Structure formats: C-alpha cells, structure tokens
Amino acid sequence: MKKINFETKFEIIRFSVAILIALALSFIIILLVSDMPFLALQKLFLGPLENLRRFGNVIELAITLSFAGLSIAIIFSANQFNLAPEGAFYASGAISAMFVLTFPLPKIISPFLAIIIGGLIGAIICVIPALLKKKWGASELVSSLMLNFIVMYLAKYFINNKFKDPTCGYNATYILPDSSRLINIIPGTRIHFGLIIVVFTIFVCVVFMQKTKWGFQLLQTGRNVEFAKYVGINTSAIIIMSQAIGGFIAGMGGSIETLGMYNRFQWQSLPGYGFDGVIVAILAKNKPKYVPLAAFFLAYIRIGADKMATSTDVTSEMIAIIQGVIIMLVAATSFLSNTRQKMLIKKVRNNG
Amino acid sequence: MMNKINKIYPNGVVANKDVDFSVRRGEIHALVGENGAGKSTLMKILFGIEKPTEGSIYYKGKKLIINSPLDAINYGFGMVHQHFMLVESMSVSENIVLGSEPGSSWKINSNIQDEEAKKIMEKYNFKINVKAKISDLSIGLRQKVEILKALYKGAEVLILDEPTAVLTPQETVELFEQLKALKAQGHTIIFISHKLNEIKEICDRISIMRNGTLVGVYDVNAVTKDEISDLMVGKSVNWEVLKTPTKKGKVLLKVKNLTVINEANFPCLKHVSFNLHSSTILGIVGVEGNGQKELVDSIAGLTKIESGEIILKDKKINTSSVEKIRELGLSHIPGDRMVRGIANESTIEENLLATHTKDERLFHKGFLKTKEIRKWSEELISEFQIKASSPKVPIKMLSGGNIQKVIVAREFSKNSDCIIANQPTRGIDIGAAKFIHLKLIELRDKGAGVLLLSADLSEIKSMSDSLLVIFNGQFVAYFEDANKVTEEQLGKFMLGVEKQDEKEIKRCEA
Amino acid sequence: MDNLITYLIDSQFLYSVFRVTTPLLFAALASVVAENAGASNIALEGIMIFAALFGAIGSGISNSLIIGLLCAISGGLIISLLLSYFGLYLKTDIILSGIALNTLASGGSVFLLYVLLNDKGSTQALQCLTFPVVTIPLINKIPFLGEVLSGQNLLTYIAFFMVWVVFFLLYRTKIGKHLRCVGENPEAAESVGLNVRKLKLTALMISGLLASLGGAFLSMGYMAGFSRGMVSGRGFIALAAAAMGMLSPVPTMIASIIFGFADAVSNILAALRIPDELVKLIPYLVTIVGLIVFSQIRSFSEKKRRKKILSKT
Known about the structure:
The complex is a heterotrimer. By secondary structure, chain A is mainly alpha-helical. Chain A has helices at residues 2-33, 37-46, 52-77, 85-102, 109-136, 140-162, 194-211, 213-223, 225-230, 235-261, 273-283, 291-311, 318-330, 337-350. Chain A has a domain at 59-289. The termini of chain B are far apart.
C-alpha cells in the first residue's frame, strides 16, 4: 500500500510542477512582451469564463481535441509513433464534405453516414504507416508525416477543383446542406451534437482499453512487445488494429468538426489537430478516461489565448511555446529525479 | 592480490564472501566455479565495474582504489568480456586504438593508427590484417582484437571471461598459443572458464569458487579433473523432496534432430533428439550457454529452428505460433523473467491474466469479467504466497522473488499438459522454492510432463525423474533414473569431462 | 510529355534543382551527424524555422549579413539546446522532444514575428538581406554546365562543401570516430572511457548548426525574408533523405538531390497546368517511395549477408 501511494504521489507532484513551470513561463513571456500584462493574463486565464459563448468555444474545441487525444492515445498505447491522425483529420473532413455535397440525404442519416465514412478513411490512412513498418521496416514517424502532406494535397485538390464554390470569395466548398449538419444542442453557443458523440466515444474507448480482451492485449503489447509475443499475443495484428481504431476516431473527429462547426469545408492547410492530440494524450498519460480533462485543459488555455489575442497585444501563438514546454516536462522521466531520490531515502529512513 | 573481498548486492544476495584471491606474476591462473558461484562478480570488482562492500585490492604491494574501468585500465588491468565491446563497422586498428588514438592533433591519421596496431601485433606475434573490418572477422579473430585492445592500453594483467565459449577447436588452439606467448613476455592472465580440459592444458594454478566463497587454490598439476569437479559442484542446499515415483505416461513431446543457429550464426543445438513423457519430470542439466535455452525456446515457439521437428501431442509445432502452442497445452516459465516474463509497467493482475485470455471463467465474449478476475487473482496471490497487498499493485514494485512467483502462478494455473520450467526457483527464498517444487510435483502427478532447467544441480537432481545432460549443443548423457547418479558424476558430464556412449544417450528417445 | 522533357533538360531547371536541394542537404547532413552518434534529431523542422526567422530579422534589423547569419545560427541553437537538455539530461524521449519542439517552433516563430514586427505572416516590413550569388570564373564559360554550376547562391556552394566537411569530420577526425562509436556501440565507448552523453551533445550541436544553415538559406538565400509555413516539412524530408543515404554523407547528398529534383519538377509541372495541389505532393510521395525502396534494399542485403555467413559455418 505504502509503495503505491509514494509513486502516485510523486507522479502527481511531478505533473503539477511541470504545469506550474509552464504557467510561470507564460507569466514571464507575457510580462516581457505586453504593455498590458495583467489584462493579458486575466484574459488568458479567465477569458473563457466571461460569457456563455466563450465558454462554449472551449467545449467546442475540447470536442475536437478529445477525438484527437483519444486517437493518439490508442496509437501511442501500442508504442507506435504514428502521426497520421493529422492527415486523417483533414482528409476525413474533406471527404465528409464531398460526400454530403454529392449525395443529398435526409437529416440524421446524412451526417451519420458521413461520419462513418470519415472514420473509415481515417482508419485506412493511419494503417498505411503501420503496414509500411511491418512489411518494409520503414519508420512510421517519417512515413506518417509524409503521408499527411500527401493526403492533404490530394484532398485539397478535389476540394479546390471539383467542389469549389465560385461564388465564395475564398477557397471553400459549396455550402453544406442543412440536413448534413450536426444540430446545435446548447443555444447561445455553437456546441453541437458532436458533444454527445464524443462522450459516447470516450466511453467506448474506456471500455475498450480496460474491459476488452483486445484492449488488454494492446496495452501489454505496447508495454513490452517481447512479453506480448511470449504470452502468445498476435502482436502485429494488434498493432495494425490499434492504428486502425485510432485512425477511425481521428476520422470521426475530422468529420464531426466539419459538419458541426462550419457551413463549408475550407481548410487550406493541415489543422494541426494531430499534434494537439499528442499533447492531450501525453497529459492524459494515454488513458482514455483522462483525455476529456486534458482536452478541456488544452482547449481552455487555447481559447483563453484567443481572447487574450483579440483584447490585448499578445498574440495567441504564444501558447505553442507553452505547449511544447509542457509536453517535454511532463514526459521527462528524469525530471525531478534527484528530488525523488531524496524523498525516497527519507521515506526509507523513516520506516527504519 | 585481492584481500578479503566481500560483495553484497543491494537485493541481499551475497555474491562474494570473504574471498581472498591472489595471483602470482607471470602465471596463467584459472578461476572456476558454477554459474552464480561469484567469479564474475569478483572480476567485475577487479575491473572497476562493481565496487566491493568490503575488502581491498593490492597490486605489486600497493593498495589500489578502483572506481571505474578507466582506473583499472590505468593500473594495467585489461578485461576481455564474453560479449565483445567492438565497433563492427570499424577496422581492426581503429578498434585497437579506440579511446587512446595516437597523435596529439584532432585529426586521425589512419596510417599512424595502422602502424600502431601493427606494432603491437608484432610485439605479441598476432597476425591479423589491421585494415579488416570487424564485421568481416570470425569470432576467434574478434577476440584477438579485444585482447590486443587491452594490450595496447598497457595491460599487464589480462582477465579473460570464458574466452573459449564461442571458439572453434582450431581457434582455441591458436588462442592458447597466444596466451603462452604472452606469458613468456611477462604478462599475467586470469582465465575464467568451465572447461576443465583447457584449464589443465594451459593454466598454472586454479582457484575454485562455490557459492560465493573460495574453496581452494591449487597447482593445476596437483589436482585431477575429478577433484576439481567435486570441489566445484559439492552439495549445497539439501533439497529433500518427497516424491513418489510415478509411472511414465505416453509420449507427450517429441523432438527429432533439432538444429538451431543463433543470431551470431553460432550453431547452439546440433541435431538433438529426445522424448518427453507425461507424468514425468525431465531435467536438462548443463552449464548455462550450452544450448538449453535455445532448446526450450524453440519448443515454446520463440526461436526459429534451422532443421528438425518438434511434435507436441502428435501435432507438428515447428512453425506454429506461440498462441497455438500454448493452446495445445504448453506453459513456459522463461529463464529471463525481466525481459520476457513480465510486462514491467503492468499490474500483478494484468501479468497473471496475459496467458488466460481464452479462459471462459475470466472472459465473456471478449470482455473482461472484472469481478471474477479480481477474485481469481486474489486467490492466486494467496495460493502462491505472493507478497503484495492487492492485485492492482504494479508488478515492478515487487521483489525479484515475488515477481518470479507471479510468473509461476500464471503458468501453473492453466493445467497444462506440458510445462517448461526454465530456472523456476532462481532468486527465490527457500520456502517459496519448496512450494514451487511441491506444485511441480503435484502437476506431474496429475499427468503433466515437465521439462526442467536449473543451474542448481541438487535441485534438479532431486526434482527430476530422469536427467539429460547437455554440453556444447548436444546431449552427452541420459539417466533414466535420476537417483542412480551422483552430483559429482553429473558435474563431469556437464563439464565435458566425460561422455556416455551413443546407445545410452539414445534411450532418451524412447 | 515532350514538353516536359524539354523543360527538364533546360539548364535553368537544373540550376533550380541545386538551389532547391540546398536547404534539404543541410538538414539531411544534420540528421546524418546526429544519427551516427545515436542521438536522433527529429527537431530539424523546428531548428530550420527558428533559424530562418532569426536570420531574416537579424539581417533586416542590423543590415549586416554576418549578423543575420549569426542570428540564424543562434535561433537554431536555441532549439538544439532545448532538445539536448530535455532529451539527454531530463530524459524525455528524444523523439517526443523533437516533435514537441517542432510545434513549439512553429507557433513560437509566429509569436516572435508578431512581437517583433507586428506582423503574423511574414517579415515583409523588413528589408532582409540575402546571401550573394557567386559566379565562378572559367566554369561559367562552359556551355550549359556553366549555367547550372556557376552563379549559385553562396550558401548552395557551402552546402555541397559541407558534404565533404561532414565526411571529414566523421571519418577523419578523432571526435568523429568517437561519435560513430557512441552511435554504434555505446557500451564499447564506455568501456574505453568515452563520455557518451557529452559526445551525443556535441553531435546534436553540430547537427543544429547544419540545420540552422539550411533554415538560413530559406530566408536569406534565394528569397529574402521569413513567412510562416515556409519550411513546409523539409525537416522531415531531410530525415528520409538521410535514412535513404544510409547515414553516410555522399549517398545522403544524392538522396537529397533526388528530393530536390522532385521539388523542382513540381514547380515545372505547375507551369504545365497540372493542378497545384497534385504537384506539391510529389516530393512527399517520392520520399515515401524512397523509404520503402531503401528499406527493401536493406532487408535484402541483410538476408544475403546472413546466407553468406550461414554457408561459412
């Protein structure tokens, strides 16, 4: 009993210190850069709470980030550095848009099918680097990064050439049919039905990882692939499956974001949700049940940064610096290891 | 001279106890002992890889403080490890001068490197092409490069750890000539080995260790191989095991003509054959590294076999997946428990569960039955006396002995017909070890066939019904009745001193 | 198709291939140095971004090319130092650190751009300098080849010179030998007393320097100034080029030229009215194909080698 408490206690301390350092860093940057530092800080940390609409923005972003985080969490749980969810988000959003524009279908059925198709596309995209690694030993990191660009340009080609709305001033598709959009569930905000879907998805992921045989085998494979082989787990099948599931979730995320938040598809570059998913997954320690919290935290500071940017002279990209620092600190295994040693020695001494 | 060396490891294992080890200048001194006898530890202390808990080292009359290999090198000690520390893509001369490259400038002059390498080779009469890449060299030549590396750094005392373990007979002959030449030039050599024949051939004196203590120092000429063997292998713990003799059942596992080549392209098993019957415990006796690991790994489906057949319960399993082999009814306690036996980051429960994913009591249509699993793991924890407060404890928190108990609990709880137990009681306290022994016997009585590997001779002798001795990738003796042979006799077979004649050995294929 | 060939044989086109290869080559060499020492540098993209930004601003503000260059190198070194600190000392997984730093640099560069110049898109407000183009006497008189080889940007020549420098460093200096030893067999390195961590740090610093030069070229070479998104994945393509080049300088150079070629071809194809988007994906597609081909070759040669050794026993 004592031993568990110590380790968890230490992890919590380490985690909190990492976040505190990151927050302190944001303090410092803002102080250095802004003429109105305290207003900036206030907007950053309290901005989202100012009104319902702003807070709604946090939830909207958290929905997408949750999908991203779940996707990466599952992929990373298999110990694969596959970043294809980034491209999957884009492609599934684009393909969903193209689907609903091509096949007008009644309400509910339209978005439902579009999301499923988006998910399947995402699954296919994310499996490719896994297959490349299995068959040819190619680094899944490099191939997934390249694939992201390929997929984006391909999808963008179709969007900009076959589905482009000439009446629209900027590069975007035609307006998506009403029947395909996800309904708004909380008036006063743009929060859409995707919230329900993501909650459901999180639930499914939690159950999958903790209560199914496959989820169990996936975790063991990710933790020690030699052990997994020794106990008879079909590790290559499990790895491919996990990438497909992660990809499906990322695909869903892209479709839901498009159908819930926009009336056209207009992304001209990779939205960056894949990398955001990495942050969320790291913060959530790859556990689906913590993903919503991590996603909320990240969404909160993002929207706060947006608010800060519109109201003060500090631009929102500052958050990128904070994010980078957070990931590295949280994932640093030797971080505070000296402190840990001292604490451990003290504890052992106390116990005689 | 190493005086009163005591070495106690942090996990409480006493590796060296009051060891007084000394070597005379200019001699070739053999250091022998079984696995775990403490000789590697002693040498690691000498070479600065480990520090003694107590004790001191004197060299040429002066006391030495050795904190790292660099210190040892500076004092003139050189060590040739069992696993070579060579950079494969670099040439012989590059490896020899590594870390002490000649010339003061930051540039490398490969000609000067080659010159230096040639110089040292001539001095000691080695003949290797200095420009050759290590990756192209045979193991024997690579070892010579390692020796030259140590000599280049000015080693006067050379420590060779199991040098002939991976050499062909021809290469061994060459090595010995080199060693004799080195001795003639005034070097001192400490020769760690199991191979009594070789020790007799080349060494002057021999120190024998057993269970962490030094049991004797002799002139090699004054002792016979039998005497050495006896001293090495003497009775340790009394494992009195209560075992009722059972009748051998039918053939459970057939191994025919099995040949396995490992990653270093070394043939570790050469055309071995044997049968395992149900209701028997067959012990495979041998010094670690003679092929037994590869034998059990290939049966368990973890190693590719080069040729031959493995038949379990009348089904050929040469190329079957681990999953299928386990489903057929095989359990495997692996020898390297930390690498393969557990998932370090998982909980006890998860580690227990890993091989039971097809058990209907615990899984329902692909879903974990949490409550039943919890109860089941708690039962196992208490049955196997695992010291943990709950199944949810991460397994890395447990002591080594308890981790082994988790592995044993997992593998024994499947009621398998065929059990491979590779060092099942390594690192476990006596009480727990006896418990595991009782369990093994219980399983045997219920009809299981057990393949047992152990470094502890008395354990394996008292546990096994029959014994197969393996040496250098082949079986050299078979004893139908383990009671009819003494540990001393077994020792001789293990060390290659004796070999049964073919007909006797072939009885294991009955 | 005929049109295409004509375009390809044009000396202007071949000139542009070398130009386009330059940043890739710098970054690929950076990866070569780092990987040889066993310290993967995934943060090449981020290093190039910061180097490009700092260089452009530095040269614009100080009106001195040298200062601009130093700023570029400093920018790159910031990322390299962070990578080293987190990867080697705090023991964050070095690949994860690389990914984190890339996102940090991506957003951070826009942030700094805004803070310093009040513009989130580019440095167009500043008059940024570029490195001069160098005409090589005599060579420039050779028909056709002269137009390709002479008149390139100074940094382009430096990049190709660096191929030799990296080769010399890795294979002809003591420190290069130690780096390679650390990468190939860190235990062997320790057994002879080499400081593995210090050597990896050195490798990452050199790697960062090379990648910074690549970033500097982007904003101070052919084009003047920094704009967001200008690196567009070159740092990652460089990783693939280094892998294809089997971590050896000269093959890596060839791989980089291949990718540069693909990049340049995509520009030509744009002129031929093949849609912009399809054209842009060519370099990335070539990279994946290259990776596959390379991995296939490597596993094939491994099998051959094993067969050879097996037959010896």
